[in-house]
């Protein structure tokens, strides 16, 4: 069977962690990827779940992050602005209007 070379770019920290884990398993990185690729071809699917949050979950997380940011700003003495105040600042910056 002929062989070919694959080249991929990954975060260097992730690569190091993956290399270390493969060594603990007694595998080379090449062997680990070959096992993964064989499983994908054999099963005709990614052999683990890949998912993302639903729109509702994403909105909930975004609102929690926004609320946390507002609380942190208030704790730091940053004044909270209303939507109208924010829009006025945007107009001022964009168009030089007041």
Can you characterise this structure?
The protein has 98 residues and is an all-alpha fold. The chain folds into 2 domains: 12-43, no CATH class; 55-95, no CATH class. The protein contains 4 helices and no strands. The protein has helices at residues 12-25, 29-43, 55-75, 83-95.
Structural key phrases:
elongated, single chain, 4 helices
Strand and helix layout:
Blueprint: H1 12-25, H2 29-43, H3 55-75, H4 83-95
Summed up, the domain count is 2
**Poorly predicted residue ranges:** none
End-to-end separation in angstroms reads 73 Å
The helix fraction, in percent, is: 55-70%
Mean pLDDT: 90
Tell me the number of strands: 0
Rg over alpha carbons: 25 Å
Largest sheet: none
H/E element sequence: HHHH
Overall 3D shape: elongated
Count of alpha/pi helices: 4
Strand content: under 5%
**SSE-based structural type:** mainly alpha
Concise description?
The chain is mostly helical and about 100 residues long. The chain contains 4 helices and no strands.
